[in-house]
Amino acid sequence: MGAETLVNNGEAKAPLILGLQPAALIDHVARVDWSLLHQIPGERGGSIPVEFKELEHILSELKKHILTSVDDPSPMKTMAGGSVANTIRGLSSGFGVNSGMIGAYGDDEQGQLFVSNMNFTGVNISRLRKKTGPTAQCVCLVDAYGNRTMRPCLSTAVKVQGDELTKDDFSGSKWLVMRYGIFNLEVTQAAIRFAKLEGLSVSIDLASFEMVRNFREPLLKLLKSGDIDLCFANEDEATELLRGEANASPEAALEYLSKYCQWAVVTLGANGCIAKHAQEVVRVPAIGETKAVDATGAGDLFAGGFLYGLVKGLSLEECCKVGSCSGGAVIRSLGGEVTPENWQWMYKQMQIKGLPLPDIRN
């Protein structure tokens, strides 16, 4: 299926994969030196919400701390962001999968930027609602090693509420892609109800180790409901999930998740990933031939590659291999959007691994 929207009976065909991101988000991604990271409260490497004043302060300080690099002439980028948006945009632009977004954006410059960026990459935006108010923003600070520290500003931002969702948002789609978040629990639960009524499979990403640590109970309840078909966790989130257990290894977390989800995946950064479906467990190494410029979006693009594999009917191991190719493609440049050159790099990696290439070429 091409990236173009297919039309039948005068109506656009429903997206195969839908992403729920209640609040549209704009990312300001920059490579910075350590001293700026020391000034910012909270743990490095994590993601902690900040108020608008703090966001403005960080943005104003950035200029003094930017690291320039020979490989990347633009040390700061502003683009549509958010974990789910990264996954959906990748599925649409890199894999040619008919994909759409559910969410809300503000009537400001950031909102317009989000919509045009998504639209430009072929994402179906007909389920995005425009609201009066500001669009969410996030500063993504990347250190010299490619590690990222996020400071999102969401408190005043517009977002879609659970009671605004309708059956029509979901009808005709096959997958619903979400990220776990306590502030979006009500809309997440409403979306899952509609998805299940309409026969969609549900995928969830565990978001961040802080989110798992601070809001573990509602997460466990969500997993135990049996409504989550696919769960993605990184190593830190997996450890946090089993905190206090005698064995909190990624393998133990995979085993735990697979009790409730048909597919469970734990990504291990440079060590690749492990995944389980039914009785099958696979371990797939990361792609060695890539240099991490910025880890932003690695998990999101891995999820996109894995979902492409699932809708193509690939084996569990092949799904992981596609994920490692797309995850490897995004970390080669700044931000959660894959550049055209890096999509080409990914197609080459897929070819080397004997994986079926998408029907599109950028």
UniProtKB/TrEMBL annotation:
Source superkingdom: Eukaryota
Keywords: Kinase, Transferase
Gene Ontology terms, MF aspect: kinase activity
PANTHER family: OS01G0105900 PROTEIN, SUGAR KINASE
Family: Belongs to the carbohydrate kinase PfkB family.
Protein name, UniProt field: Sugar kinase
Organism of this sequence: Gossypium arboreum
